[in-house]
Amino acid sequence: MTSNKKSAHPLTATTAVFLLLANGAVMALSPPPPDPVAELAEFYHATGGDDWVRNDDWLDSEVPVCDWHGVVCNTDFGGAVFSGLSLPDNNLTGSINDLELVDNMFDRLDLSGNRLSGTLEQIPFWIAHVNLARNELTGTLPDIRAGTIIGTPPPDYFHGVSYLDLSGNDFHGAIPDDWYRMALNVLDLSNNSLDGGIENAFAAIRNTIGGELVLTDNLFSGPIPPEIVSTTLWETDFPISGGGLNLCWNDLTVDDPDLIAWIDDHHVAGPGWQDCQNRERDRIDASVSGTWFSPSRSGEGVSLMLLDDGSPLLYGFTYSTEAEQQWFFEVGRTGELSLDWPTLLETRGDFRQGLRVAEDPLIRNVASLRMDRLGDRVMQFERVFIDYSGCPPLQEIPEEGDPVPLPCIIYPVSDRMNQIQLTRLAGTTCNNQLDHQWISGVWFNPESTGEGFVVEVIEDGRGVVYWFTYAADGSGEQVWLTGDARFDDTTLIVDNLLQPNGATYGPDFDRDAVVLDHWGSLTLNFSDENSASANFDSVRENFGQGEFQLERLARPMLAECD
Asked: Which end of the chain has fewer CB atoms surrounding its CB within 10 Å, N or C?
């Protein structure tokens, strides 16, 4: 395992967001945006708008454009002005070449996770933030000047776009030679089939402060050119990403010690990136569902479920850098050989009351995770955790009129390690079918959303329970509890529900510091596939005892067997 945490160059959360999203705003050279109604109507029909997952208020002449779902407007200058589209994972279809993206002159375009197809004939010139990740785009990447039909920029000027994410498509061939004309803050070309021109990707990152370049999971091979050291990338202590470079899952080689040291200083999770070069991996299937942990870090881990639609749902249970219980969750992305969560979310709430809501729910991005399957029960975890200990507590709700005390300092804790499968869900292979396997899933009380149970029916017939909830003292702090038991018909009685405490996240984690405190007992009774009841009796102050009804929130993918 490698682990890195540095604090030489702290950055404020506000500044970090500004650098990623605002620093590449289109310069005064851009023309003013046109009236968007007609163009948006064409866009809607070209992308199969009637079949979108959400198309709230689109084309309704009685509703302002800025209230249409996914339309982004800028209100900084008095009045709402159309400035972009954000329609990720919304079942957009059609050819990318029919969208005339260059003619839509705005700041943000996020069409990631859809089914847009075709070849990308041009890089949208006037759009600052472009995310076309996880579509069905193919062919080679376009030259920078290809298709630039608005204006005539100087030969070395291509500064309109600052964030470009084309990951998770099927681009092949080499990165074009003239990509040096760009001045990107972020370039993500991961999970494609690119095999050449790697030096041109580095040349596209020209930022005097720092940049981020992700080339993971391509077909790049051979030596890395030494001239990349002139690239200004975030070092491993960069807040948010934990490093500005990721080269894993290619077949690259480096012999120069100075170049190895430079990559170590800029790579996510630091030294050890050579271990994920030219390495075989296994396919992802339903059998990955279960609990994963590192034996050297016993006392923390993740519960992973590959859902019916193939998406991976993850609940992570760990501790903060201040030794408080912490958990996070999110639905991620499934690849052939890997799983990926660009964001994992942390919440604040109250026991049996659920998620706290002020003007907005108390939720923030606290981590990212990538899992690559190395074998039947082995995964490489590449983790980035955001340390907010220098920021105001998330659970504090300011009084009306009181400003939130910003800026605050955030730091990353990034590492890379192998983890093993501690439990596997019954029914995920044709060799581990059990009667109770239908109970596995996520269960919650609709009257207290934001907390609930993950139930794993594992191969030996036991039921493993994780209860993700909050403190009962009004602090808003997260609490997670765990236990296991044998089933009595469709009832699971956990007499010894445990609350682990004592450890801290990061390189200073000490498994011997984990204390398993007895919290109380829990009984779960599953009446059918979608409904259950929970009864608890706690020995801890303020939690008390009670009973409530549960509904199924998610179910895992199980094997299809004769």
From this structure: C
- What percent of the chain is predicted at pLDDT more than 70? 85
Summarize pLDDT for 18-76 with one digit per residue, the tens.
222 333 333 334 444 456 788 899 999 999 999 999 999 999 999 999 999 999 988 76
Bridge partner residues of 372 (DSSP): 338, 380
Residues 410 and 11: beta-carbon distance below 8 Å: yes
For 141-181, the three-class secondary structure string (H helix, E strand, C coil) is CCCCCCCCCCCCCCCCCECCCCEEECCCCEEEEECCHHHHH
Residue 453, helix vs strand vs coil: strand
Reference 32, options 86, 106, 101, 85; nearest CA is 106
Q: Are 366 and 344 in contact (CB under 8 A)?
A: yes
The sheet with strand 186-188 has its strands ordered as 71-74, 81-86, 108-110, 129-131, 163-165, 186-188, 212-214, 245-246
* In contact, 312 and 292? CB cutoff 8 Å: no
Amino acid letter for position 110: D
CA distance 145 to 152: 10
Distance, in Å, from the CA atom of 525 to the CA atom of 489, rounded to the nearest integer, reads: 9
| Nearest one of 288, 458, 440, 257 to 378, comparing CA atoms | 288
State the average pLDDT over residues 440-468. Answer: 97
pTM over 0.90: no
Q: What angle do CA 165, 410, 20 make, to 5 degrees?
A: 25
Cα–Cα separations (whole angstroms), residue 43 to 33, 54, 59, 84: 16, 15, 11, 12
Q: Residue 259 belongs to what H/E stretch? A: helix 257-266
Q: Mean pLDDT in the chain? A: 86
3-state helix, strand, coil in the chain (%, to 5): 15, 40, 45
Structure token pair of residue 156? 């070395």
